[in-house]
Amino acid sequence: MSSPLKHPKGFAPMSCCWSTETMQKRLPFLAWLPNYTWYALKMDFIAGISVGLTVIPQALAYAEVAGLPPQYGLYSAFMGCFVYFFLGTSRDVTLGPTAIMSLLVSFYTFREPAYAVLLAFLSGCIQLGMGFLRLGFLLDFISCPVIKGFTSAAAITIGFGQIKNLLGLQHIPRQFFLQVYQTFHNIGETRVGDAVLGLVCMVLLLVLKLMRDHVPPVHPEMPPGVRLSHGLVWTATTARNALVVSFAALVAYSFEVTGYQPFVLTGKTPEGLPDPSIPPFSVATTNGTISFTQMVQGMGAGLAVVPLMGLLESIAVAKSFASQNNYRVDANQELLAIGLTNILGSLFSSYPVTGSFGRTAVNAQSGVCTPAGGLMTGALVLLSLDYLTSLFYYIPKSALAAVIIMAVAPLFDTKILGTLWRVKRLDLLPLCVTFLLCFWEVQYGILAGTLVSVVILLHSVARPKIQVSEGPVLILQPSSGLHFPAIETLREMVLSRALETSPPRSVALDCTHIFSIDYTVVLGLGELLEDFHKRGATLALIGLQVPVLRVLLSADLKGVLYFSTLEEAEKYLKQEPGTQPYNISEDSVPEHKVALLKA
């Protein structure tokens, strides 16, 4: 199915006057809106309704994960739909509250709405700044094992955190280890009604999900009755969260009418959208006023963890679906969209949001064509705030707990350990470090895992693999680049294998895979040349790339011998006649290399 959406690859260079192409890159909706079709409108409408029916119950549930009243989930669920219409570069992504972001908010905002709203504003400012400065590349330093370790730990933390609501337990602390202890300690206080309803809701959600995964695609040649039945099944299974929560609320209301209520209910939810206002930069308490500085100090590492993880989650979702559906996303433009969503959302009491993998999957499976589908989703959320809040009173917390548990279960990747064991066992180290420390403090887990990944990366740079070929001439071939931490390793290998032998041996250094060197490497090569000269041996360089030649020319190293091929170097070093080296000077570099150097 073709889509009218065109996806920019990046920002155009700044100029005095913005061209049409530049405007389309800064405001991507200008690229696809002129080509919008009735077919795209129909598909976007269906997708928007489907996502809306998913996000409303999830928003209520995720507010519980964040430790906030349920209405804050809905306050956070609509702004991203409208902002992404104008700034988004993925047709599939939907922005809003997610399980992981809600967990992070609960860690850093002390279950205080004022802190959560301020965190959304400050996170948006940081994300917007990163977008303008094009700092999206920083997210590349958080490796996949770190992400998998964090998301798996988050799935366990979030899922277990809902056991108390599933069983109707009261006064359970939020710290994970205390939570585990108190849950098992108070298991005898389980409310039978909540437990039975919660388990029934989980089973219903699982059955509907399995039905959704196994519904065959509709073909035009199918009879109308069959197509209608497929459409009904697809609608019911796609909107399974709304369906199950509505069923649970109906059951609770039925008991309420009889005068007996066996469930813990969500309770009263304020009606309508709050009036727009600037985020709270101070909070009045019974003990005085908490200043902006004190609020920022209280959130601490959350000001780094929340915006970065929000960006990481959203861009990972966008790139995943862009790859599946064969289009490209602009990471820096996505930073702008998420940042502006959080800033504007904070004016309406939103907590930090990001891209949702689950709802994005619903969006894609519904056949969405453009980000216009989000307009219908946002409208549904606003309508629910105006007209459905009285019904939210009867939603049992155990039903919302079932929704959360089933939503976060796929985040725990059961196959990643086996995959990393087969592919690269060393990657298990950052995975395990992140996973274990995230149960203590999220920021420590992510920071420690990232540091371990960076150390592994730096070790490979400092100790590159060097292929050694023995013979009359010793041939050394670094398998990757040669940077300043690696020059000492190369020097030690040359000294031990060539210059400390008797008699000293000549060496051919194959530079085919070396595309850049720095000043420290140049100094190291100069010292090696002096060592070879003192011992009456020769160091020859083979296959120098243009950037390396340019650096060596600039450094004006004396006595460097350069050969185009290994065969030429071996003949020269074996004292065979007819082969002459190139000295490293512009006059003696081959003509095609000189042309490239002057280009």
From TrEMBL:
PROSITE patterns: SLC26A (PS01130), STAS (PS50801). The chain crosses the membrane at residues 45-63, 69-87, 116-137, 149-172, 192-211, 232-255, 301-322, 334-353, 373-393, 400-421, 433-458. It is found in: Apical cell membrane; Basolateral cell membrane; Lysosome membrane. It catalyses: oxalate(in) + chloride(out) = oxalate(out) + chloride(in); sulfate(in) + H(+)(in) = sulfate(out) + H(+)(out); hydrogencarbonate(in) + chloride(out) = hydrogencarbonate(out) + chloride(in). Residues 473-557 form the STAS domain. It is a multi-pass membrane protein. GO terms for molecular function: antiporter activity; monoatomic anion transmembrane transporter activity; secondary active sulfate transmembrane transporter activity. It comes from the Eukaryota. CDD domains: STAS_SulP_like_sulfate_transporter (cd07042). This is Sodium-independent sulfate anion transporter. The lineage of its organism: Eukaryota, Metazoa, Chordata, Craniata, Vertebrata.
